[in-house]
Predict the structure.
Amino acid sequence: MNFRKLWTLDPGVAYLNHGSFGACPRAVLDAQAALRERMEREPVQFLSRDLDGLLDAAREVVADFVGADAGNIAFVTNATAGVNTVLRSLRFAPGDELLVTDHAYNACRNALEYAAGRDGAKVVVAAVPFPVAGDDEVVAAVLDAVTPRTRLALIDHVTSPTALVFPIERLVGELRARGVETLADGAHAPGMVPLSLERLGAAYYTGNGHKWPCAPKGAAFLYVRPDRQEEIRPLVISHGANRPLRGRTRFQTEFAWTGTSDPTPALGFAVAIRFMATLLPGGWDELRARNRGLALAAREMLAARLGLGLPCPDEMVGSIANLVLPDAKDDEREFIFDPDPLQAALRERHRVEVPVFAWPAPPKRLLRLSAQLYNEPADYERLADGLAALLPV
């Protein structure tokens, strides 16, 4: 089957950057449009009378997908909002330490720095090797940075710049044994790796729907362990702060309504989960395995074509994979997300959309490729041709 026709992507572009903003299938967009039409046909009916039930039903689908009790998750707009929600709710004492790795997503690292600065706490950065030999190096680097003052660890499940699947279950367990709770940034994890959040036991976990589940932009969830829910408040305090509970917890009631906004991305999250499960006979298990297999094959082919090493073992790869490129020449970039001339040349000359990150800092750079159902091996062959023609740039 030609899966690409299920998306509205430009057919002339080899789109290998699903990891940045996802891409929503046409059927899910149509379902979202129908929900918006229903809302605008009778806004009071939809928002005042129907929405609670619709959100409850959608939450059940998402909760089942991530292995959580529906009462322990709330919808947020993206994983960065989820991280901010937790860090804005918690308070720390002067001298407390907040642990993070040097592979953290820049936006979430900024939120951690803000929370530390607000309360007089200190951010401690664990240096995780890259290239990395395996999970043990990650665990050792994180645990070596723990001290008696460590209060919280912000840990990526799947790192964004370096595309590593961290051993999150081991990390959460080891940290909790040392009295340290974990805020897991699972931005990339839903739809890429199997999730069982209740078993994982992290105090806080947030993940995106718009990436690998292919939900509309603005769909994400925040999981909070029941014993921690009382202290977590939404970024916007609204009617839920004193609304009658009517069978719901205060956590659910507050997050369900933070003011007038478009709820269709959250409702579309459930639509996307169900739709994507129908595309292969084995459902989500087969879809995750297919995407991972394609990412592994693509990075191996590219490494062989370009004479590059593999920066991590296969076991640490999900649906995104990285290669370390030769250093850039005359690199004047100051920020990891500043445009890279190589990325622009691949897009303009070869019609390949793929990110090139200045990580950890210029002139070092990484190429991150994504694999989603609409991708085929020919997409990566086009990338290899383009890189062979352009390097060094």
Remarks:
- The chain has two domains: 3-16+282-390, 28-276.
